[in-house]
Amino acid sequence: MAIQTRQQDTEPDQIKKPLSQPDISDHVAQTIPAPVVASAPSTATPRPTTTKQVFAIVRGDAMDAEVVKMACIFARAKQAQIVAMYGIEVPRKNELEAPMPAEEERAAAALQTATTIAERYDSDIETEMVKTRRFALSVVEEANRCACTLLVLGVPYHEKSDGTAQMDPETDYILEHALCRVVLIRGNKEAARC
């Protein structure tokens, strides 16, 4: 399995911007073969925009199996390529190129699981490990840049005190700013209690 690793950085003034104000032009992206970490910046390898793509966002949790399964089903119907993405958010105190072995190992395991699931559905899948400051911003930027057909992500079940569903800020950001359709798979209530 070939895992692509990409580093994306934001300018320091973007840290103070709320999630609802993307500024895609200020990002730098690098793509390098995993697990090697580049010491010098390079440009990202652009995906052809003529190919339909379904992005499956994997997080290394129980929702990944459902996310990849649904991505396979939708990709087959749309005759699209599947791209599984796992994000590693790098703290500001660290450089993007700095090794993060524990996180990179979790990412590789999650992406290997995604590949195994896709193989069960006779689907080809491309995997990417993205090292970034804000993963939600990177997902939206990549989906918009590639003219992604569909983005599939899963979120664990969270309930507010008034009984309504609650989503994390990253999921809200993706739902608000992605130009493609987004399929959100929420975990069930019983799994959240375990």
Detailed description of the structure:
The chain is an alpha/beta fold and 194 residues long. The protein has one domain (3-7, 29-36, 50-193): 3-Layer(aba) Sandwich (Rossmann fold), CATH 3.40.50.620. It has five helices and seven strands; from the N terminus they run βββαβαβαβαβα. Helix 4 (169-177) links the parallel strand 6 (150-155) and strand 7 (181-186). Helix 1 packs across helix 2.
What tags apply to this protein structure?
seven-stranded mixed beta sheet, 24% strand, alpha/beta, Rossmann fold, 7 strands, 31% helix
What's the layout of helices and strands?
Layout: E1 3-9, E2 28-33, E3 53-57, H1 64-78, E4 81-89, H2 101-120, E5 125-132, H3 135-145, E6 150-155, H4 169-177, E7 181-186, H5 189-193
Helix pairs in contact: 1-2, 3-4
Q: What's the CATH H-level homologous superfamily?
A: HUPs
**Global Rg:** 16 Å
Estimate percent helicity.
25-40%
Q: Quote the distance from N terminus to C terminus.
A: 32 Å
What is the name of the CATH topology?
Answer: Rossmann fold
User: Major sheet: order of its strands?
Assistant: 2-1-5-4-3-6-7
Q: How many helices?
A: 5
Structural class label: alpha/beta
- Oligomer class: single chain
CATH architecture: 3-Layer(aba) Sandwich
Global outline:
globular
